[in-house]
């Protein structure tokens, strides 16, 4: 039985229909040659959340204007050389697509639209180059008209702010974080922990994307953008900290499964505080941090006496960080809910420091996407030029549009194929409207009444994530067919040729995409891992002290991207072998060890250098697809370095090096015994090396 539309779905559909009809009415009133471009554009830019419509509107307008200017320049300069013009358009579309894929913000729409807008203007305009300025101006007016109408209608009529939606997802992510924390402290099974980790990483990725649109929202939450970003930063950092806490606790547990007696009471207290959630006493976090500080002070002198002591010291430090993160998340959530801008001292630096805009960028896949667009456009244009095909312009336009639309997907082919299927399904509707309705309507209200039975139900399905792609494909098929033809004197022959051109363009886009850059989620997951391993090797090879902000941001972003791809890949990827959170911990530990280099002195410096060289060689081998385990020599290097650190007077850098070294050892050698070590002596190192 079909699902009845919800109130929000019906409102979205009616608003989208109203915006498209408003754009169509104004386009008819202005006498624009292709008024249905305005109607189609209004649907393309509509979104159930008003903030997302507005956040992209400015960039869409900017991209349309930039693309129209480029189209005019290219046509005027190269209209007498169709081969060069085709190549120039392909290079422009590919170049804009390349930049768009490397800009993972709403601004990317400007570059993408600047690319395929050139195709929308140049290819239909080459038949009458003397009118290219009028053609370009009309196309810009039609597209901008659709953008403006959609933005105004969705912002004024019953706007649906993203504030409640974002807060709901934020609360769900906080609950997931608390559940994962309890699982880690209670040492639940591996499968549950991996499931919780992937769920939380996916939640944070979705929150991060939604927050980019928050400044454009209509709700009061838009004034809390900086605290929202700070909260997400703290939640994201929970990923490596919590996995470290779980790992250290597992290493320190006694044979009966109980934690060490000296830390068991504070572990139980932290667990109870987390389980209490928002109802917990706000002052309890401060008391827990004080208890952990006293435990850390008691352990400082013993932390270099052996790996068990170092691991216990690392556990206490990480558990303290875990409490701080949960405290900050709860405080920030309460401030966001109340709209209080006056943040306390321990939260204000987090809010003032904007969420780091350093993302994982895949230049290789962006280049292959650009190559697919260039190859598709030049192939269709070559066939068009050689055969004189009257509908070649329609095919070339569709190639430009569809190689751009789905370029951000790992495998764009299924999305393009879905559009192809539903474009074919839309042809009877398109023929009915073009050949029956448009020639006979004598008033705009009658046209609206004829379009409503098709567009309003489709708009309801657009509001549903499960059916959005199919519904948009039908709307695009009908609107695209009407947009490509002169609606005043369309006939069956021109409709058939135009439809064949559309289908040929979509098929070409699908084929060149499959040939150039169609990859699966499993392949993308492995590529993400190899990129991370290369970056870790580069960090270990650095001679100076690296800044960890950029690495941390990129690796956290990769964790989210990897989690989404693992969910898509299902069982085709071995999740036990893929642990980007572990790699993140390794990188952060390397940064911490590099920072301790100045205080290690002449004795510890060479030991650190040997260890970092070995780590770099190991991760270089991993990135070169040689999945060998970490060499045993690294264990000796770690032993030497811990003994050397024991000769350094206690200080923050020295303590941080102990924590980082214990974490690095657990990451690379999780099954190594927690042995005691003798004092550091160079002669002992030499004897060990000879042995």
Automatic annotation (TrEMBL):
InterPro entries (alphabetical): PHBA_efflux_AaeB/fusaric-R
Keyword Transmembrane helix listed: yes
Compartments reported by the entry: Cell membrane
Keyword Transmembrane carried by entry: yes
Keyword set, alphabetical order: Cell membrane, Membrane, Transmembrane, Transmembrane helix, Transport
Alphabetized PANTHER family for the sequence: MULTIDRUG RESISTANCE PROTEIN MDTO, P-HYDROXYBENZOIC ACID EFFLUX PUMP SUBUNIT-RELATED
Protein name: FUSC family protein
Organism: Azospirillum endophyticum
């Amino acid at each position: 039985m079909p699902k009845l539309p919800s109130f929000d779905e019906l409102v979205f559909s009616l608003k989208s229909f109203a915006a498209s009809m408003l754009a169509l009415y104004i386009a008819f009133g202005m006498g624009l040659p292709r008024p249905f471009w305005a109607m189609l554009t209004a649907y393309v830019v509509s979104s159930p959340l008003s903030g997302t419509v507005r956040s992209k509107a400015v960039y869409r307008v900017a991209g349309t204007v930039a693309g129209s200017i480029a189209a005019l320049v290219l046509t005027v300069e190269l209209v007498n050389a169709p081969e060069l013009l085709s190549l120039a358009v392909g290079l422009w579309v590919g170049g804009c697509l390349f930049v768009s894929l490397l800009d993972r913000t709403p601004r990317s729409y400007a570059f993408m639209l600047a690319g395929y807008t050139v195709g929308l203007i140049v290819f239909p305009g080459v038949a009458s180059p003397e009118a290219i300025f009028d053609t370009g101006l009309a196309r810009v007016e039609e597209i901008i008209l659709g953008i403006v109408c959609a933005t105004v209608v969705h912002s004024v009529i019953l706007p649906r702010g993203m504030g409640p939606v974002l807060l709901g997802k934020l609360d769900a992510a906080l609950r997931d974080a608390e559940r994962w924390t309890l699982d880690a402290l209670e040492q639940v099974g591996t499968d549950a922990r991996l499931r919780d980790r992937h769920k939380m990483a996916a939640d944070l990725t979705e929150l991060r994307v939604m927050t980019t649109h928050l400044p454009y929202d209509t709700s009061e939450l838009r004034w809390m953008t900086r605290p929202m970003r700070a909260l997400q930063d703290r939640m994201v950092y929970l990923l490596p900290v919590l996995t470290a806490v779980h790992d250290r606790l597992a290493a320190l547990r006694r044979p009966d499964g109980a934690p060490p007696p000296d830390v068991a009471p504070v572990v139980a207290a932290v667990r109870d505080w987390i389980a209490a959630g928002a109802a917990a006493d706000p002052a309890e976090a401060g008391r827990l941090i004080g208890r952990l500080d006293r435990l850390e002070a008691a352990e400082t002198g013993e932390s270099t006496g052996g790996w068990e002591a170092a691991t216990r010291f690392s556990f206490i430090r990480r558990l303290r960080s875990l409490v701080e993160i949960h405290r900050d998340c709860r405080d920030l959530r309460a401030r966001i809910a109340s709209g209080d801008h006056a943040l306390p001292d321990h939260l204000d630096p987090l809010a003032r420091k904007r969420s780091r805009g350093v993302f994982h960028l895949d230049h290789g896949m962006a280049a292959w996407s650009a190559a697919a667009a260039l190859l598709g456009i030049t192939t269709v244009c070559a066939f068009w030029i050689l055969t004189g095909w009257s509908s070649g312009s329609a095919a070339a336009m569709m190639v430009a549009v569809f190689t751009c639309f789905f370029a951000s997907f790992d495998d764009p082919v299924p999305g393009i194929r879905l559009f192809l299927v539903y474009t074919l399904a839309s042809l009877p509707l398109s023929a009915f409207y073009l050949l029956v309705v448009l020639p006979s309507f004598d008033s705009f209200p009658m046209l609206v009444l004829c379009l409503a039975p098709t567009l309003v139900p489709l708009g309801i399905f657009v509001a549903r994530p499960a059916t959005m792609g199919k519904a948009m494909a039908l709307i695009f098929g009908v609107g695209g067919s009407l947009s490509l033809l002169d609606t005043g004197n369309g006939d069956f022959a021109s409709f058939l040729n135009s439809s064949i051109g559309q289908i040929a363009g979509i098929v070409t886009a699908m084929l060149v995409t499959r040939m150039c850059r169609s990859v699966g989620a499993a392949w993308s997951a492995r590529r993400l891992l190899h990129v991370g391993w290369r970056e870790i090797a580069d960090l270990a090879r650095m001679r100076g002290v690296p800044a960890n902000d950029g690495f941390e941001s990129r690796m956290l972003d990769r964790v989210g991207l990897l989690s989404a791809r693992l969910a898509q890949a299902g069982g085709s990827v071995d999740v036990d072998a893929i642990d980007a959170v572990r790699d993140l911990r390794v990188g952060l530990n390397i940064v911490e060890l590099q920072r301790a280099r100045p205080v290690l002195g002449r004795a510890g410096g060479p030991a650190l250098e040997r260890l970092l060289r070995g780590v770099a060689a190991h991760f270089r081998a991993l990135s070169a697809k040689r999945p060998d385990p970490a060499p045993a020599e690294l264990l000796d290097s770690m032993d030497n370095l811990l003994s050397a650190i024991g000769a350094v007077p206690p200080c923050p850098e020295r303590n941080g090096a102990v924590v980082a070294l214990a974490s690095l050892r657990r990451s690379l050698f999780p099954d190594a015994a927690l042995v005691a070590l003798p004092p550091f002596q160079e002669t002992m190192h030499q004897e060990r090396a000879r042995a």
